[in-house]
Amino acid sequence: MNNFWTRTLTGTVFVIVMIGCIWWSFWSMAGLFLVISILGLWEFYSLLEKANYYPQKYIGIIICVALNAYFLWLVLDTIFSALLLSYMFWLFIPVSMLIFFIELFRNKQFPLKNISFTFLGLLYISIPFLFLSSLAIKSNVDFKHLQEIFTPYIILGFFLLTWSNDTFAYLVGIAIGKHKLFERISPKKTWEGFIGGIVLTQGIAYIISLYFTELTMIQWMIVALIVSVFGTMGDLVESMFKRSLGVKDSGNILPGHGGILDRFDAVLLSSPFVVAYLMLVR
């Protein structure tokens, strides 16, 4: 019972902070995503260290911060010229390549794996949140007035759909789940829960479409389908990572819920597909 109330309290605070920061302003949302990215990278690299791999933890986090700063500078192009932004983009590539040279001086086992895992953390954790941030900026507008071009509704809808799918899949799976979805990776997930999550999340997508009109009803339902399918796959991928490293939770920063990666596993691998779809249709 104590664990139940711990999970409930942590989950409530978590949702309030997420919705509040996304809703409040572009800056609070960007700051939230940066903090989540840094904490997620730290967890990811720390888990690998327990398995005797040594990614460049601090360099990876510095590059994560640089990526977020670059995105913000793109938004604030009235302060930084387009030429400067172009130079920054091309400078970012050799800066990232420094990871290879730094490994020469570290004298660690498995240098190729250390380099690969450093880049993997950035691809797996940092890039998806930058993709998500792009959904908060209206297209074809004047970037001189940031708050006027900021729209949080698609991102809020995305998170509501992700949380709904997780909740419905769990409840349906507990109620009627019999056939294992991917027993080798996650023994508790069932096909009934997976399908139930898809169907019920479609209903949430319809409700969202009535209030968040940036997308049509059909577009919201397709986003919901992408979230249900790839979010579930993201959950399985994170479970695969943890099983391969012999850990139950990615961390303990969220009492009763595990770590950052445990809470955002569905987001990390579904958001790029959502963004790609919306880029095609908007």
Query: Helix proportion of residues, in percent?
Result: over 70%
Q: Rounded to an integer, what's the Rg over CA atoms?
A: 20 Å
Major sheet, described briefly? Answer: 2 strands, antiparallel
Q: Structural class per helix/strand content?
A: mainly alpha
Beta strand count = 2
Give the strand order of the largest sheet, numbering strands 1, 2, ... along the chain: 1-2
> In sequence order, what are the helices and strands, one letter per element?
HHHHHHHEEHHH
Overall mean pLDDT: 84
Tally of contiguous helical segments: 10
- What distance lies between the first and last C-alpha atoms, to the nearest angstrom? 47 Å
Q: How big a fraction of the residues is strand?
A: under 5%
What is the overall shape? globular
Weakly predicted, low-confidence segments: 78-85, 140-144
Features:
single chain; about 280 residues; mainly alpha; two-stranded antiparallel sheet; globular
Please specify the SSE layout and strand pairing.
Elements: H1 2-24, H2 26-50, H3 57-75, H4 82-104, H5 111-134, H6 146-149, H7 153-176, E1 180-182, E2 186-190, H8 191-211, H9 217-245, H10 260-281
Antiparallel strand pairs: 1-2
